[in-house]
Amino acid sequence: MKKIYRLIRTDGAARHGEVETAHGTFETPVFMPVGTQGTVKAVSPDILESLGAEIILSNTYHLYLRPGMEIIEKVRGLHRFMNWNHPILTDSGGFQVFSLNALREITEEGVWFASHLDGSRHFLTPAKVVQIQETLGSDIMMCLDECVAFPSTRGYVQASMDLTTKWAKASLEAKTREELALFGIVQGGMYGDLRCQHARELTQLPFDGFAIGGLSVGEPKGLMWEMVEATVPELPEDKPRYMMGVGKPEDILEGIERGVDMFDCVMPTRNARNGMLFTSRGPVIIKNARYAGDTEPLDSECDCYTCRNFTRAYLRHLFMSKEILSAILNTIHNLHFYLNLTRNARRAIDEGNFVGYKEQLIQSWKETES
Amino acid sequence: MKKIYRLIRTDGAARHGEVETAHGTFETPVFMPVGTQGTVKAVSPDILESLGAEIILSNTYHLYLRPGMEIIEKVRGLHRFMNWNHPILTDSGGFQVFSLNALREITEEGVWFASHLDGSRHFLTPAKVVQIQETLGSDIMMCLDECVAFPSTRGYVQASMDLTTKWAKASLEAKTREELALFGIVQGGMYGDLRCQHARELTQLPFDGFAIGGLSVGEPKGLMWEMVEATVPELPEDKPRYMMGVGKPEDILEGIERGVDMFDCVMPTRNARNGMLFTSRGPVIIKNARYAGDTEPLDSECDCYTCRNFTRAYLRHLFMSKEILSAILNTIHNLHFYLNLTRNARRAIDEGNFVGYKEQLIQSWKETES
Fold first, then answer.
1. Is the C or the N end of chain B the one with fewer CB within 10 Å?
2. Which of A72, A84, A69 is nearest to A32 (CA)?
3. Is A264 an annotated catalytic residue?
4. ipTM score assigned to the predicted complex
């Protein structure tokens, strides 16, 4: 098995590294914009490139249902379909099966679910999920796992962990494309010893990297970090570590400090469409009446297209008028904010100043707007 | 009065010319993308520039109600507000007052209407409409006029014409900014002699250009062209001519052939959002199932960003998935189509081949897709 991760520099547990994929190399820590249905909402691939996005995430569940695998095969994979010639990570669809489907049914072999689009019944197995992702041509594929709800009993979590391990082995066996990477997903609910145990089990298997799954599902923030701290020390130093579905800017900094390399979250893109913007002085709710005549840029310290060219007054007008350009400009800004956050984190790690970087940022986000 | 129009070349009645404004010169025939609320829907100003848009239209009625003139003054005009440093034409708001308001009330002095946003009552006079447009900083302003419904009696149209002429004079008197142009609007309903008479009345007044208003309001196409043919010969050769709110690609070609210089229409942008795309072989309804696995570009003869980078299968997927990128990519394509149409018309006029150009295009749009 070829190693895909190269460590460049550490600063405490924080790591600056790089990951090699079939579509080129990206540096870590990295934030992956989410492109659920084969598009990062409201931005074209050339804008994503200009923002410096190095890898994006897409959703197996959604693409499997629409446009469906027959179309994806015809267009020869997801990269060509969406015109994105850089790395793509796809999730397994497990999270959507569990979160969008009240009628799901888990068996030892896989999971039954009903499509949220038309109610049609589908059965996904670990092998089928790998096969779908190979058809998509994902540079980094994820194993089908069970994402357990919070709270769950220790007994339920243990049984679920065993199933996830079984599915992880089946995923590895199903893999046929050498050039695509496959990650295992550590579960274990909110039980530190189970997290530790599951990480030890999975790291025996020849995965290219490991994800920490089942977090940010409603648990208290402190408990979430306890689980990360229980898991990371069990993960090998020579493979990338991915914390799924996390999170707020401060969460990403906390994760980096604990040795996590990869992050994804819908927050920058979804909040952009809802008019919530991340700035160097904390969040701005753009519909607020105080911005109606505000001729300043959204964030005077930001050099994104939105901040270089438009006022808060205009951004508010677009939002109030429900204009599509509101979603576009807000998404450009929020993605720039997140991508800058991880880019600058690498530099801070190189300079041995990651904690200072983190604390200075978190402090500045708390400042009240004048 | 300084002349803003320079004739470059004629081919029959068709004209290639250029218009000088406070924000630079644009060539005619020209298509003006519509930016109703201070944004051309679904595209940013840098994309508009890259598409070669030379002038855009915005709506006085909408901007007057939201964000309102207080904000526009604060941000020092519409160009700065929307970050568009090229010419802007604004309509007078008259059309919206008449089309969006069942409760409007016309007096000799102006028109009462209720806001479609909050029901608040407003009174617009010709002078106030000029004042609003001067605050916006429109390079080309339009007079308040009454756009009469179709059908209307000869008597009603005559009285309305007199009012529009009275308002035209009041508009000229109200104008204070020398560097901004003001156009008169020829009305006259569907009566050729009234069109002719009204054009003669208005062209006595020192307007910088003339619009043909009150067309495309439900009348048969043949009658519309009769009205254009009755009007254009009465318009001076040394001033630009603008056919308001028209139209389909073939209408623009027909208008150019009859000596019209300027056009605007929501069709390319609105139809884009509804999945109707203009191509060199006629319209494509992208949701059609036959495009589901179609790996060809939308229009293989088109060199826009959308056609260079994406397949019909992807465009259909985005449309079916209600993704914002669908509106973005479709709008880019349709605007490119319209802007290319008028750009190429200038070349055809220069070559003395406008009718050949027109007929060849109209023929190709009728071809059935294989």
1. C
2. A84
3. yes
4. 0.97
